[in-house]
Amino acid sequence: MKKSIFYLIILGLSLLHVSCAKGSGENTAEEHTDTTKPLTAETLVVYFSQTGTTEGVARMIADITGGDTWRIEAAEPYTAEDLDYTNQQSRSSLEQNNPDARPAIKGDVPDLSRCRTIYLGYPIWWGLAPRVVYTFIESCNLNGKTVIPFCTSGSSGIGSSATQLQALAPGATWMAGRRFGAGTSRGEVEQWINSLQEDNDNDNNINYNKMNIRVNGRTLTATMTDNSSARALIDLLKEGDIVIDMSDYGDFEKVGDLGHTLPQNNENINTQAGDLILYQGRNFVIYYGNNSWSLTRLGKIDNISQAELKELLGEGNVTVTLSAVRQ
Ligand SMILES: Cc1cc2nc3c(=O)[nH]c(=O)nc-3n(C[C@H](O)[C@H](O)[C@H](O)COP(=O)(O)O)c2cc1C
């Protein structure tokens, strides 16, 4: 196992700390998954915790944000033996070493329809999130939600644990995660949440209704569709412009690889000149003619005639640059 000696040392230190704090490695949490209670808040704190450290941080976040909590539990609970990091054949070692391991979750996953922001907490196990957290993400529809990962550990950072989870739900907006130690204070958690709020305020300067398209020296403005695909595109543009090499297809469109996969909201569309379309999740299309197909609307170019658009795009390949509009 990669980096295993390093992890064994920090693991030994961190587990010593936890056993001093808790008296045992058993699950001390009182709350259990309650699938009958409806989740009403827009913020949900979902967490997995075996010795109470992540749970402690999760409860502080819920208290500060007014969010609901939902605890991930494995259908088959972890015993102290399962968590034995000195045994390469223990359940946790085998699961963490197997990228395809997806331990079943106890009960149904929560109804996330009302919630917009999910804080997702877990302990670091061998540098990663426990595989049962992967099961949770793959069992939910996180499209259009904002996910804020956090972890607790002996000393490892959040590192690639969060990027691996992010890859499982590309339709969500993932914010940079944060690692906490065993003795985390409420003040520390509060400071972190306030800093997220500041980032969010900066994001609020972005106009999600508009996008600029630079093509052949001219900047066009587009009005965006109100769906998760268009929002995901603007979220990407917040990080920087996207340049797309486009070519003609079918004598009615220019199409090019977006370089990112967006959530799809397909419907039967009779396209018109100026329509901005997502095809199969990652092809960006500008229509200058008519076509009928199951496609995802992203938006429409403002104030341009078919003839003007055709002339501007020209014949053959063209490079376009998409950028966000700030208020
Ligand atoms: C199986 C296992 C593997 C662990 N691997 C790491 C690790 O790679 N790096 C680290 O810093 N801590 C590691 N730890 C320590 C936990 O991340 C740490 O104690 C965490 O805060 C426990 O959270 P919990 O009390 O919410 O379960 C590991 C613990 C266990 C049980």
CATH fold name of the largest domain? Rossmann fold
* Helix segment tally: 8
Mean pLDDT level: 88
- Main beta-sheet strand count, sense and barrel state: 8 strands, antiparallel, barrel
Radius of gyration: 23 Å
The secondary structure category is alpha/beta
- Going by CATH, the architecture of the largest domain would be 3-Layer(aba) Sandwich
Q: How are strands sequenced across the largest beta sheet?
A: 7-8-14-12-13-10-9-15
Number of strands: 15
CATH class assignment of the largest domain = Alpha Beta
| Low-confidence blocks of residues | 13-32
List its salient traits.
15 strands; 29% helix; 2 domains; Rossmann fold; alpha/beta; elongated; Cyclophilin; six-stranded parallel sheet; eight-stranded antiparallel beta barrel; 327 residues; binds flavin mononucleotide
